[in-house]
Amino acid sequence: QVQLLDSGGGLVQAGGSLRLSCAASGNIRDVKAMAWYRQAAGKQRELVAGITGGTTNYADSVKGRFTISRANANNILYLQMNMLKPEDTAVYYCNAEVPTYGGDIMYWGKGTLVTVSG
Questions:
Q1: SS3 of 86, please?
Q2: Cβ–Cβ under 8 Å, residues 94 and 22
Q3: Residues 6 or more apart from 99 whose CB is under 8 A from it?
Q4: Does residue 56 sit in helix, strand or coil?
Q5: CB 33 within 8 A of CB 51
Q6: Which residues contact 63 (CB under 8 A, 6 or more apart)?
Q7: Strand partners, 54
Q8: Rounded-to-integer distance, Cα 89 and Cα 61, Å
Q9: pLDDT-above-90 percentage for the chain
Q10: pLDDT digits (tens, 9 = 90+) for 42-80
Q11: 5-26 burial, b for 16+ CB within 10 Å, e for fewer?
Q12: What are phi and psi of 30, to 5 degrees?
């Protein structure tokens, strides 16, 4: 089992910055990859950024503006969001992927709301 506690959302003006955090606990050693997803009202959940070891990947819509990082020493995942746009408004979810013999298990945080005003 892996528990994820995401935080750091809030209201920010367009062009501003926020940093999201996700504190992971439990069987952290089993985690293969971590990521941030987001879900805007009326839309499907989408991948924002992911990190596996030292490799990162980003959605095209956030490249150059968002940075994902992981502090392994204290099991925290971050998402630094700069130059925010109104279309970045969504609930952001932390995600951890754990491989098992039966397939990968996805763990989720409860989400943190980011609202970007125009």
A1: helix
A2: yes
A3: 30, 32, 105
A4: strand
A5: yes
A6: none
A7: none
A8: 13
A9: 87
A10: 999 999 999 998 899 999 999 999 999 998 776 899 999
A11: ebebbeebeeeeebebebebee
A12: -85, -10
